[in-house]
Amino acid sequence: MKITHQCSERALTAVFKPPASHRHWIRLSLLMMLAGCASVAEHEAGGVPSRAGASAESALGNVVASPYLAESLPLQLMICKTQVSNPPANERRRVLRRSALGCLNGVSVLVAPAPGACLTSGYGPRPRLHKGVDYQSRPASAVVAAAAGTVVEFGFRQQDFGHWIVIDHGSGVYTGYAHLDRTEPGLAKGVRVTRGQPLGIMGKTGNSTSSVHLHYEIRRGNLATARSWFRLDPVDPFALPGRCEVDA
Questions:
Q1: How far is it between the farthest Cα atoms of the chain?
Q2: CATH of the domain at 229
Q3: DSSP 48
């Protein structure tokens, strides 16, 4: 597999400059960034991406991902080689977006919280409005928290989302993760998470009509007053500007 210069380990190391107190994140962060880069290279060769080795899965399953991951590189995301509805702007299936983060109400969230996956369905009419984005990888990818926050919904919805997690990031920003095959031990309603923390593995639980994937949604509003996820306003992740200035 050929990795372009910007995705080489040397290039990644050059942009990855954590303080000394975070040296223990270096290996894992490089693993995750290389997994994303590898998916780009694999897509250029054709096919749905497989992750960069089983070691990436075991690392994601036990360690919180580095907070420097998204800030260090532009978004590395490909459109899957399948029939894709509402794809974001792309060139030869490479998504044309510089930032891996989107800014909403002053909160920076990951636009693709499934490292190494490709996009199978964007936000938009399908013909009903698809209020999220779908990501797929083979084998199933880990799913991580898009930003720091508190788990406010955690459970199983057979009628639609299957294993389902909602995180409140403050400032009226929420993210939802659906069809998970399984969730990480220790997660529950009320638990605090950090950006990049593993939530589980993508799957096809609930009323899922497609193959193993993550259905990811960003919504805004006030869940306490709306009393339902479905009464919050959905947001297209790829319509958001890059990371918020407060993060710079």
A1: 51
A2: 2.70.70.10
A3: S
pLDDT value at position 247?
Answer: 61
Q: How many domains does the chain have?
A: 1
Per-residue pLDDT at 127: 85
Other CB atoms within a 10 A radius of the CB of residue 10 amount to 7
Residue 180, helix vs strand vs coil: strand
Q: What is the pTM of this model?
A: 0.75
In a domain, 113, yes or no: yes
8 Å CB contact between 156 and 164? yes
Helix (H, G, I), strand (E, B) or coil at 35: helix
Both tokens assigned to 11: 């290039």
Q: How far apart are CA 146 and CA 175, in angstroms?
A: 7
Distant-in-sequence, close-in-space partners of 194: CB < 8 Å, separation ≥ 6: 64, 67, 145, 148
Q: Which of 172, 196, 170 is nearest to 184 (CA)?
A: 196
pLDDT, greater one: 207 or 69: 207
- For tokens 């690392």, name the residue: 59
